[in-house]
Amino acid sequence: SSSCVFGSVEPFGLSGGDFKSVTHAVDFLPAILKVCVIEYYMRKSGAEQAAINLGIKKSMMFKYLHSAHEQIDDFLQTRSDI
After folding, report:
1. Exposure string over 26-64, b if 16+ CB within 10 A, otherwise e
2. Which residues, in sequence order, are CB contacts of 79 under 8 Å at separation 6+?
3. Closest CA to 16 of 34, 4, 27
4. Could you tell me which of 78, 81, 48 has the C-alpha nearest to residue 62?
5. Backbone dihedral angles phi then psi of residue 11, each to the nearest 5 degrees
6. pLDDT tens-digit profile of 5-58?
7. Which DSSP string do the residues of the chain spell out, in sequence order?
8. pTM of the complete model
């Protein structure tokens, strides 16, 4: 299924009702991670073009995205424990 937040990818196994929480988690990311998430998942221009748009190597972009996924997951786990 596709979502308005992550294109065709739902990296956290979320239902439609959880996208508000993910968006909130993204808001708390450090700026570079937030920009990478927005560029890669929302602009849908492909990995090569996203990296070019960000002005970084594709390998670095994927490292940032991996870090963003971990931080979003941690945020969601912490929030669900409250």
Report:
1. beebeeebbebbebbbeeeeeeeebbeebebeeeebeeb
2. 21, 25
3. 4
4. 48
5. -65, -15
6. 444 454 555 555 577 888 889 999 999 999 999 999 888 889 999 999 999 999
7. --BTTTBT--TT---GGGHHHHHHHHHTS-HHHHHHHIIIIIS---HHHHHHHHTS-HHHHHHHHHHHHHHHHHHHHHHHH-
8. 0.74
